[in-house]
Design a protein that fits this description.
This protein has 120 residues and is mostly helical. The protein has helices spanning 2-6, 10-26, 32-35, 37-59, 63-83; strands at 92-96, 106-110.
Length: 120
């Protein structure tokens, strides 16, 4: 989704958001219950928040509003990845200090250390 935002391609953003929702829906969190029921509960809440923002993004047509939803998806993904003790490929937590104007920052998760800002 990040790359589609970098290109400011709203139709591609929606296509990637739909793929993202499908991936989120296919996650099996039940194994988390073996470690700690509280982890499972926290992960389910975070997934619910992630999906709510992804669903909202699909309803938007304005790129700025879509970026706000993307910001919230990212803000919920970060604690989710920490909750489930993510051990996959290296990810980067990146920041745009003026994503929505002066002093209105936003973050995103990237699979590359190179900054490709989805908010500009």
């Amino acid at each position: 989704m990040k790359n589609a935002f970098v290109d400011a391609d709203t139709s591609q953003i929606k296509m990637q958001a739909q793929k993202f929702i499908t991936l989120v829906d296919s996650m099996n969190l039940d194994d988390l219950n073996k470690d700690d029921p509280q982890i499972l509960s926290a992960a389910r809440q975070e997934v619910s928040d992630i999906k709510a923002n992804a669903d909202a993004l699909l309803l938007e047509n304005d790129i700025t509003e879509m970026r706000q939803d993307f910001r919230m998806i990212s803000e919920n993904m970060y604690p989710f990845l920490r909750t489930i003790a993510y051990e996959g490929p290296k990810l980067y937590w990146q920041n745009c200090p003026m994503a929505f104007g002066e002093n209105k920052e936003a973050n995103w998760i990237s699979n590359s250390s190179e900054i490709m800002n989805p908010y500009l």
